[in-house]
Amino acid sequence: MIDTTEAWIDLLLQHGPFTVLLGVPALVAIFMIEIRISRLRKLEPPPYGRTELIFWPSQIFISLACLSLVGLVVALGTETADGVWGATFLMLYSWVRALFLNRDEHRYKARSSDTLFLYYLTTITLSVIAIYILHDQAPSLPKLPVPTVVLHLTLFTFFTTLGFVVEAWPRSHTKVQTRAREAEHLSEYDQANLCSRLTYHYIDRIVSLGAQRPLVPADIDHTTPEYLRTRQGLAGVGPRSHHASNGTYTPSFFWTVIRAYRTQVLVAVFLRFVAFRLPFLTPILFRQLLAFITEYHRAANSDGKEGVPALGGGLVIALALFAINMVGTVLGTMALQ
């Protein structure tokens, strides 16, 4: 019986594993970063300044990560085997552009970047996988200076991890965020970064306050105008309290939320539906990928008796598998907004 995991690793090793693991995500990230930068630069910079305590550590850690990649490019010289050089160049360019994105996020939005957060997370995960393959398959890479590549990739992963910690750190109580919240009437959710939303950290203050005493409308910072304008919102508290006290009306918190945020609820339901369906495609694509690897391995060992399937087909399946999982994660996150 063929070990499909071993066949997959062999396939990667024969056709530039690091181009697939690191280069292709970097290419996608370059495209996404450029789109985000172009959108940000169409906005008017707010007069709040930037949170220096977060901005400069982010820039420093991204710069150090870029220097690690520059060192790797210099160490490789003209050696382009196994796709390391091309992947390193794409990663270097993407993180140089990330420096500009981080600057523009602080200049135009005064908040953390969801694009950078996701790219940090993806890069760290794939870099760890690449380092593992280098350690485990060093004898299969005779043309590659494996210890040097491992050293620079480890430094790169270390600095990106530090940058990720800074990017994910809650920042709702900084002076810049406080000024923005007061000027734009933003809620804590509006200012929460992606990590805070995923972990529900932004609601800790309200939960802690609710554990001490019953909540009142003033406890919720900057309730949205849409909610205030509805009869089910704070503007209708008095009349509805009167009806409730007389027993003529039973208020419903559920319908209050539905009527106040009708559009947002419909969008969230649609996104949740799509995000729920996408994972069902994963086993189908994975089965296709395993079938391709098995067929490729059998054809490669048939001494030319069987035609080797085109490598592009396997790469398309692998990228589709990666893209569906990423889109499913992003949609699942957006559905919570």
Mean pLDDT: 76
**Terminal residue distance:** 47 Å
* Beta strand count: 0
Strand content: under 5%
- Structural class category: mainly alpha
What is the succession of H and E elements?
HHHHHHHHHHHHHHHH
Percentage of residues in helical conformation: over 70%
Major β-sheet profile: none
Which quaternary structure do these chains form?
A: single chain
CA-based gyration radius? 25 Å
Shape: globular
Unreliable segments of 5+ consecutive residues: 230-245
Helix tally equals 16
Question: Quick gist of this model?
Answer:
With 337 residues, the chain is an all-alpha fold. It has helices spanning 4-14, 17-40, 52-76, 84-109, 114-136, 146-168, 175-184, 188-191, 194-199, 204-212, 225-229, 237-246, 253-260, 262-277, 281-300, 311-334. Keywords: Membrane, Transmembrane, Transmembrane helix.
Task: Give short descriptive properties of this protein.
337 residues, mainly alpha, 72% helix
Structural notes for this entry:
There is one protein chain. With 337 residues, this protein is mainly α. The chain has a domain at 1-169. It is 72% helix and 0% strand. It has helices at residues 4-14, 17-40, 52-76, 84-109, 114-136, 146-168, 175-184, 188-191, 194-199, 204-212, 225-229, 237-246, 253-260, 262-277, 281-300, 311-334. The chain starts with a helix and ends with a helix. Mean pLDDT is 76; it is low at 230-245.
